Amino acid sequence: MTHHIKGQGRHQVALLPEALDDFVTEDNPVRVVDIFVDGLQLDSLGFERVSAKQTGRPGYHPATMLKLYIYGYLNRIQSSRRLEKETHRNVELMWLLERLTPDFKTIADFRKSNGKGIKNACRAFIDLCRHMQMFTDVIVAIDGSKFKAVNSKANNFTPQKAKDHIARVELSISNYLNKLDEADKCSEPDTSAELTVTKLAWLKKRLGELQEIQQTVEQQPDKQLSLTDPDSRLMKTNNMNRQVCYNVQTAVDTKNHLIVAHEVTNTTDRGQLSYVTTLAQEAVGREDITVLADKGYYSRSDIKAVLDTGAVALVPKGDTSGADRKGLFNRSLFRYDRENDVYICPAGSELQNRFTAFEDGLEQQMYFNNIACRDCSQRLKCTTSKRDPRRIRRWVHEAEIEDMQARLDALPQTAVIRKQTVEHPFGTIKMWMGATHFLMRRFKNVSTEISLHVLAYNLKRMISIWGTEGLASKLREHYG
User: What is the spatial distance between Cα 209 and Cα 479, in angstroms, rounded to a whole number?
Assistant: First the structure.
């Protein structure tokens, strides 16, 4: 006789609870999903088929399908086939969907056709958070992370890669032609000649395809072509490897770590700061927010655009000057005297504001001193030019950038706050996705996937803050 816990016999008749509701406790997260979706105005959010037609076969209500997807993404089940399987065996889903069991094609088509509605549902949840006073003193951290696309590196082409492929195929064609010439000279029949002819025909066909790809690549603005997912791009990841992926931008609230805004891009972080800041301002309903970002976002014109919106930007500047490698004085050694509008060079001479010019679309003021530079003993450490003096360029709005740097210097913990705020959501979402890529292709569909991930993350975050029953109570109170 063992002392282990014993199970019931598989053939024993059991009296199950009369109501399915008895299987789902009051603190089960599915109750929050149910209340949240039932309170949404799905037709105004952009969901299709909210009002069913009176003729034809009835379809599933969008609320039912949205509940299914939110539950799936909360529980790391994103595949439509796996979701279909769960509806047949998962008691929580039986309760949530009222025992409905849509097939995988219906499930997949809903996600594909309701991207706008799903993205607006994600925004609606942030609106709920705002009404619950989750965003009081708004400081957001902005960052981007690379998410693998449904496109292998082999199916991504640049002009150089297309050129290399064509060269290899042309070399193979040349080798096979030489083999055929040798076979023709030989008096004995060669059994491999037919195989060589077949391979040669395939190579010529492949050469034509590659030449078409080369022409298409040259026509692309960024000189890059992805064959499987045309919107994805080859980019460097954190470990300096190169992957065909998307760059997902997020703005995360530093107080409650909620993702207030997100966007899918296929470029680098530079140039995205002002756009994501605007999305965050719209989401929290305020302009006077503080934005934290890393040096990958540093762009003076972009920072100025953020400041013009009423936000405060804190973005460190990376030193991209090559002066140190050349043995020259770095620009940072030239000190600006704002009161006298002059630069003081490392040798102690004053560089005056001589004229204004436009470079790279920016209005720049030129500072130099011909006489002092000509007779300076440190000239060889300052410039490689034998005739012209060292010129210092100053943007006309540089004072605002300097004020931002002063705020950064006064807040040395900014970098730590940014990192611990914005990188955790990315890590969590990638863990939920697993060692895989997006399930869908193109900007529209990939944005839908990310919106579902963000909505699930924010829901789980709010449950952690308020508790399941507390959040359910808040939702009921909001919906009246």
Answer: 58
Alpha-carbon distance of 462 to 452, in angstroms, equals 15
Model confidence, pTM: 0.87
Counting residues of the chain whose pLDDT is more than 90, the rounded percentage is 51
* Cβ 441 vs Cβ 229: under 8 Å: yes
Q: Is the Cβ–Cβ distance between 151 and 226 less than 8 Å? A: yes
- The Cα–Cα gap between 469 and 471 comes to 6
DSSP string, 437-461: --SS-HHHHHHHHHHHHHHHHHHHH
Contact 66, 37 (CB under 8 A): yes
pLDDT above 60 (res 190) = no
First to last CA, the chain: 58
Spans of all domains in the chain:
20-131+459-479, 139-149+232-318+407-441, 159-223, 331-399
In this structure, how many other beta carbons lie within 10 angstroms of the beta carbon of residue 270? 13
For 201-349, where are the E strands, in sequence order?
A: 225-226, 233-236, 242-253, 259-265, 290-292, 312-314, 335-337, 342-344
DSSP structure class, residue 341: T
Distance CA 78, CA 432 (A): 9
> 29-38 and 468-479 helices cross at what angle (nearest 10)?
10
**351-377 pLDDT, tens digit each:** 888 888 888 778 888 888 888 888 888
Question: Cα–Cα distance between 128 and 40 in angstroms, integer?
Answer: 11
Question: Residue 404: which of 335, 321, 317, 343 has the closest Cα?
Answer: 317
Tokens of 19: 């109501």
User: b/e for 16-33, b at 16 or more Cβ within 10 A?
Assistant: eeeeeeeebeeebbbbbb
| Domain 139-149+232-318+407-441, CATH | 3.30.420
User: What is the C-alpha separation between 139 and 141, in angstroms, rounded?
Assistant: 7
Higher pLDDT among residues 446 and 199, named by residue: 446
Is pLDDT at 322 greater than 70 in this prediction? no
Q: Residue range 304-331: average pLDDT?
A: 83
